[in-house]
Amino acid sequence: MMMGTTSTAVTTATALCCFLIFCSTSSLFLLSSAAPPRRPIDVPFGRNYVPTWAFDHIKYFSGGNEAQLTLDKYTGTGFQSKGSYLFGHFSMQMKLVPGDSAGTVTAFYLSSQNSEHDEIDFEFLGNRSGQPHILQTNVFTGGKGDREQRIYLWFDPTKDYHSYSVLWNMYQIVFFVDDVPIRVFKNCKDLGVRFPFNQPMKIYSSLWNADDWATRGGLEKTDWSKAPFVASYRSFHIDGCESSVAAQFCATQGKRWWDQREFQDLDGIQYRRLAWVRQKWTIYNYCNDRKRYPTMSPECARDRDV
Ligand SMILES: *[C@@H]1O[C@H](CO)[C@@H](O)[C@H](O)[C@H]1NC(C)=O
After folding, report:
1. What percent of the chain clears pLDDT 90, i.e. is strictly above it?
2. Which residue, 18, 200, 16, 228, is CA-closest to 112?
3. Kind and range of the H or E run holding 238
4. Best residue among 216, 281, 283, 284 to mutate for probing ligand 1, ranked by most atoms within 8 Å of CB
5. What would the pLDDT profile of 48-59 be if each residue is shown by its tens digit?
6. Catalytic positions (predicted)?
7. How many CB atoms lie within 10 A of CB 293?
8. What is the rounded CA–CA span in Å between residue 292 and residue 31?
9. What residues does 50 pair with on adjacent strands?
10. How far is residue 249 CA from its own chain's centroid?
11. Residues 125, 134 contacting (CB under 8 angstroms)
C-alpha cells in the first residue's frame, strides 16, 4: 500500500518534471522504481531436483539440461526440489503436452510439508487439439486455499518453451509468465490474512491424469489412444534461501536481492501488464465470485483484483 503511494508520487513528480523541462534520461530511471526478478540461470535437472515417483517415466536429454515427463494409462510422474526454501525466485521453462491433452494436468508448485500448509500453484489444464489450455493458479496459506484464478495464455504453450516463475518475499508473491506478472498476492497480515513466512517450501512438478475435473469440468475424458502424453522442462532455476524443514527463519532474511525495495511491489508497467491479463485473458477470479463468496476476501482489493 505504502509502496503504491510512493510510486504514484514519484510518477506524478516525473510527469510534472517532463512538463516543465524536457524528459531527461534520469526521469526514465525514476519511473522504474521496481524491477523484474533477476534473470534465471539455466542449470541441469540434477542440480536442484530429484524424481518423486515413477522414475522410469522421466527421461533426460542434453546432459540433463532437459527433462521430459510422460503420462500413460499406467501412471503419471513427478519431481521435487532437493532443498526447502524460505523466500526467493523459482523459475522453470516448460513446453506443455501438445495435441490432444484433454484430461491431463501439468503442475509446477511450491508447497510446505505440514498439515496447515502453504502452497503456491501453477496448474495447466489440458485440452482437445487446437483448444486452449487453461492456466489455473492458487495460493494456500495456513491450509486455506480456495483462491483459484484461471486464465488463457496469449501464446500456444505447447509450441515453444516459456518460463513460469514465482517471486516470494515478505511483501508479496508474484506469478510470472515470461516477464508478465499474471497474479500478485500481497502480504495482508494486517487485514487478518495469513501469509507464508515461516514454513520452508519445496518446489514440485508433476504430470497426471485428472479427467474427473480438468477439462470442461470433467466432461472431456483423456483419450488414451493418444498416449503417451509428454511435457518438457528445462532451466530448473532456483534462487532461494535454503533452510531445513524445521527452520523457522532464514538467516539472510531481509538481505537478499528479492527483499529489496524494488521487489516489494510491482511498478506501474507491471501493474499495467497485470491489468491487461485480467481484462483480456482471465476466465475466472475467485475475487469476483459472489455466489461462492458473498463477502469478498480482504486481499482482493489490495491485490487490485477488483
Ligand atoms: C477447452 O476448450 C474449450 C472450447 O474452446 C473451452 O471452453 C475450455 O475452457 C478449454 N479448456 C479447458 C481446460 O477446459
Report:
1. 82
2. 200
3. strand 229-243
4. 216
5. 999 999 999 999
6. 119, 123
7. 14
8. 39
9. 80
10. 23
11. yes
Is the model's pLDDT at 245 over the cut of 90? no
Residue 228 in contact with ligand 1 by CB distance below 6 A: no
Q: Both ends of the chain: CA-CA distance in Å?
A: 15
* Residue 268 grid cell: 506501474
Q: Which residues pair with 68 in a beta bridge?
A: 59, 232
The three-class DSSP label of residue 211 is: coil
Q: Is 100 left (phi over 0), alpha (psi -120 to 50) or beta?
A: beta
**Ligand 1 atom nearest residue 131's Cα:** 2
Long-range contacts, 122-125 (Cβ 8 Å, 24+): 122/164, 122/166, 122/175, 124/94, 124/96, 124/157, 125/210, 125/214, 125/215
Cell numbers of 175, please? 506469478
* Length reported for the chain: 306
Is position 123 annotated as part of the catalytic site?
Answer: yes
For residue 172, CA distances in Å to 55, 87, 119, 128, 241 come to: 35, 10, 14, 35, 16
